[in-house]
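Researcher: Good morning. I'm working through a list of sequences from a screen, and I'd like to move beyond sequence-only analysis. For each chain I'm collecting a predicted structure so we can compare shapes side by side. This is the next one on the list. No need for commentary yet; just the structure.
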Amino acid sequence: MKALGLGKKNKLCSVIAIDALFSRADGVQSCFSYPIKIMWRVNPARKADTDTPKFFISVPKRRFKHAVDRVKMRRRIRESYRLLRPSVMGDLSQPVDMAIICVADKIVDSHTIKASLSRLLTKIVDQCRPTDQELPD
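Model: Good morning. Structure tokens for this chain:
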């Protein structure tokens, strides 16, 4: 069961890395599937042998005025990510930093979040996969 856990090493805590995501620097990409938007980039400063990817979850106070609702959405997103990470992101070999942002205006059920997150994570893995030109001979 440890394979499904999310620990400190999986969380994006570096202020520099978070600023790089939101400054729209080169290499930052985003994708959207209601109720989630993901901003991500390959972080060349981090070694590939560390646990990848690193993420953080943002549920804006502007959309959810009550802290109870923000926490509920954050927990649902985190649980969906925790369950999807080994199956979808397992073959990702590059260090990726992600910001998972909730854009819904009301509480969304877990099934919708999981389906949306699955589509987005699959898209990220497909874009990070090396093409035939990039493969060494």
